[in-house]
Design goal:
The structure is a single chain. The protein is α/β, with parallel strands linked by helices. About 55% of the residues lie in helices and about 20% in strands. It has 17 helices and 15 strands. The strands form 3 sheets. It has a 6-stranded antiparallel β-sheet, with helices on one face. The chain has a 6-stranded mixed β-sheet with strand order 8-12-13-3-14-15. The protein has a 3-stranded antiparallel β-sheet with strand order 9-10-11.
Length: about 550
């Protein structure tokens, strides 16, 4: 058996079940029992393992918690990858899924004894188990499901993956191109204003540190007369013949020199006085020269003030504080304008790359469409043959394949399953024309067809026998048994023809005590199977004749 297998199922304190453990076998098994015996309870427990929400009403009265656990083997590689992605220990041989629900309504899920979310259980269930029911048949009208049938049957999933990878890259580059176009358009709308700002700064020719230099020059020009007068006064205070510091210092120097021959410290004092005299003489000359240089120029002051007004105006306009910031702004505006001027070249390059990516997507999409067309023709013939076997002699089934205006993640195709069970009625979309029983048989035929081509999860058929009997039931049984040759199939059934076809037979029943009712399940022996099938054929009264008929049915189905 290559497909995933549900090896065992354990249920404790769930609805009417105290405790039970079922060991399943590969291939095709059936589950039977009287109406209300608990088959829906069993399916409900499995649904919880598939991520369905639960509440405390599912717990057996009087119990504190219920526990449901399933062990799966022969895992698909995708299961291991999913568990690794969730940082859950992965055993290539098996996967154990468990749900625990308390009387207070709290629910916990575990995968390989590691806490897991219900979302993960739902994702895992796609690879582990598939409950085929009337509700699931609604998928048949879904365009996405119909397309997946073609891809699963064609076996070209690697091509689909390659296409989808190319499409995702194309969409990513398309969004980048659209954003670049939008950004370029916004820049173009700003271009005139940006150009005005740049031209104003470029024309100003602001230099680094210019503001501080001009402010210093403005202060000097504004106080030129005062500076000249005070410098002249200071020089005069040093050089004046009657009251100047230099004549007084010169007099002191001569006095000290007169005693240096017989007073030792006088030599040092003479040196210091001479040094001070030289320094003061130089200082007086410098101030005198500076006073001569300082001139008051109203024209230059006006020019400096005008330049300061310009720079301060630019700083205020742009909320800046220095000439260096104005220079940086000018350079930034230059870059943005250059970007606008070169945006056409950039957009052209992006557009060319996008066209190449789109061409690759279309190439892969067309190749995918061809495989789907080929698969569609084969599927049409195979399903019609199977549906004939299932009691629909006049059925017509057509897969219409329309090419979309633009590629999508799933390809270039829109697929519609067209169906008609009557030769006088033209085929129409299956969801609009087929009855519940017809859809159920069509879904069975599709799953049987796919099962021949690729590994599928364990399938549980619930109510597959609704509205059928006799020869059609035998043909459904044959299909289920044939599916069981390559995968694990379980069928909950009321029909003896289907029950007789199973390689293993499980029987669900109730026992009524004085205070409670409990559901149980057991694996039937060969003799017990004969009795159960006889009951299903003829009712509760068993005779040698009914047993003989049941035995004959079993032998025919098994052969």
């Amino acid at each position: 058996l290559l497909s995933v297998m549900l090896q065992s199922l354990s249920i404790r304190n769930f609805v009417l079940i105290d405790e039970l453990t079922i060991q399943f076998t590969p291939h095709f098994s059936v589950i039977t029992g009287e109406t209300g015996a608990g088959k829906s309870i069993l399916l409900g427990a499995i649904a919880l393992l598939m991520g369905q929400r639960a509440d405390s009403s599912t717990i057996r009265p009087g119990a504190e918690r219920c526990v449901i656990e399933a062990r799966f083997t022969h895992l698909d590689a995708a299961v291991g990858a999913m568990l690794e992605e969730e940082d859950i220990d992965s055993d290539e041989e098996e996967c154990i899924v468990r749900r625990e629900i308390t009387a207070k309504g709290k629910s916990r899920a575990f995968v390989n004894d590691t806490p897991a979310s219900l979302q993960l259980l739902k994702r895992l269930s796609e690879y582990l188990i598939d409950i085929h029911s009337q509700h699931k048949n609604l998928l048949l009208g879904d365009a996405g499901f119909q397309l997946s049938v073609l891809d699963l049957y064609s076996g070209e999933l690697p091509l689909l993956s390659e296409y989808q990878a190319a499409f995702r890259t194309f969409r990513s580059e398309q969004r980048a191109y659209e954003e670049a176009c939008q950004e370029a358009e916004e820049l173009r709308r700003e271009q005139d204003y940006l150009q005005f700002q740049y031209d104003q700064l470029e024309e100003a020719e602001v230099e680094s540190g210019e503001l501080e230099s001009l402010e210093e020059e403005e202060r000097q020009l504004s106080h030129a007369q005062e500076i000249r007068e005070e410098l002249s006064s200071a020089a005069s205070a040093l050089e004046d013949d009657e009251h100047g510091a230099l004549p007084a210092l010169y007099h002191a120097l001569r006095s000290v020199e007169s005693i240096r021959r017989y007073h030792t410290p006088a030599a040092e004092w003479c040196e210091r006085l001479e040094s001070a005299r030289i320094e003061l003489q130089d200082l007086a000359s410098s101030m005198s020269d500076e006073a001569e240089e300082v001139t008051f120029s109203p024209k230059r002051l006006a020019k400096v003030e005008a330049r300061l007004d310009l720079i301060r105006g630019l700083l205020h306009k742009h909320s800046l504080t220095s000439c260096d910031e104005l220079i940086a702004l000018r350079d930034d505006l230059s870059g943005r304008l250059e970007q606008i001027n070169s945006s056409d070249e950039h957009l052209t390059a992006l557009s060319e790359a996008l066209k190449k990516r789109e061409a690759e997507v279309l190439r892969l999409g067309k190749a995918l469409s061809k495989t789907r067309t080929k698969a569609a023709r084969t599927i049409e013939g195979a399903l019609i043959t199977t549906l004939h076997e299932l009691g629909m002699p006049h059925v017509r089934f057509v897969i219409r394949q329309d090419i979309l205006d633009a590629p999508t993640l799933h390809g270039l195709d829109h697929v519609t399953f067209l169906f008609s069970a009557n030769k006088e009625i033209e085929p129409e979309p299956v969801a609009e024309i087929a009855s519940g029983g017809e859809i159920s048989r069509l879904m069975l035929a599709i799953k049987a067809l796919i099962a021949d081509r690729r590994s599928l999860p364990t399938i549980i058929f619930d109510e597959i026998d609704t509205g059928v009997s006799g020869e059609t039931a035998e043909r459904i049984a044959t299909i289920l048994r044939r599916m069981g040759e390559s995968m694990q199939v379980l069928a909950v059934t009321h029909l003896p023809q289907i029950a007789a076809a199973g390689e293993d037979h499980f029987y669900i029943y109730k026992e009524h005590g004085e205070a409670s009712t409990r559901s149980y399940i057991r694996h039937l022996s060969s003799e017990e199977r004969i009795d159960e099938i006889a009951r299903m054929q003829s009712g509760s009264k068993l005779t040698d004749v009914t047993r003989a008929a049941a035995k004959a049915l079993l032998e025919t189905a098994q052969s």
